[in-house]
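S.,

Sequence below, as promised.
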Amino acid sequence: EDSRQYDLAERCFVSADQPHLAVEMHTKLGHWEVAHKIAMSYMKEGEVGLLYINQAQKLEAKGRLKEAEKLYLSVKEKDLAINMYKKHRRFDDMVRLVQDHRPDLLKETHQFLAQTLEMEGSLKDAEHHYVEAQEWHSAVNMYRSNELWDDAIRVAKFYGGINACKRVTIALLMAIGVVEGAKYLTKHSLVEAAIEYAAENGSFDMAMELATQNMPKKLPELYLKHALFLEDDEQFAQAEDKFIKANKPKEAIDMYVHQQDWVSALRVAEGYDPTAIPDVYVAQAKVKAEAGEFKAAEELYLSASRPELALAMYQEADRWSEALNLAKMHLPHRVAEVNGGYQSSQTRKGKGSSKNDYMAVGRSLEQNKQWDQAIDAYLNAK
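The prediction came back faster than expected:
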């Protein structure tokens, strides 16, 4: 061997029943295939394994990691090869072997490396492994924890899109305040997204402050969203205030109408939208009618200048006397129609109108100068 007569040395080692020395010699020389052939031909499997592991460890100690890897893999000791690279922080090689020989552990390996590197402060490298582990949100949280907001936004935007960015914006604003946070948001064109996300999550004070300073045009929309939020929470007075600030008094009126708070509904209508006053009266009238309070409903309909609705109410309730009186007072041109409806109703009930009924109708029509209809009524009074 010393004189470099390796073939002769090999035969001598084998003849002397020392094949492991021949294997060691060829291993040192890098003759991996020859060494492996001798080992498999002259040594037991267990002996081969121990020999290769021992040789690999010696090579590892000398820093010859690639060669040590070959020996470990030759005897199917892939975990020893993986751990060798882990111990020497050759993480790319470690991942390569895990991917080739332990694919089921690849995600776990990336997670471990990411967490290790994060603890050591190697955040960019940690990010790489979080992403490879499909845990990009952990990279975002890592950068948030270290207040590296540009990086947090960058990762969130690239891997999670605008929705992920929105979550980062809230954390940013809560951590460093609206004034400073707005600088990052402006840089990344996220001001509007941040305002919307804050409002969606009920952080209206934050959204208002951000909008006031950076996007005033969003304020009416925010006031409206806040108003609807407060209405759902049954904080009606506060909701009213926000509706008014959003220039949406009609929504405040509708809110009070829904609650049958007629006083408040009228107050808002009188103060901010007088055209809605009749609508409030009509809505209240319908409620009164449903409760059988017809006279009160009539007064409300008349206050709304909608006598035709009061007439329809009486007709539907089969209250023909009140209908006729109302028509005489407020809708004289419809007296004949009401009388006709009354007659039809009586007929359906198997009753007929009396002579006095026809005469009363005739006189009413005559007073209203509806001569033809009056004559018909008198002729029916037989």
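Residues 135-214 form one domain.

Coffee later?
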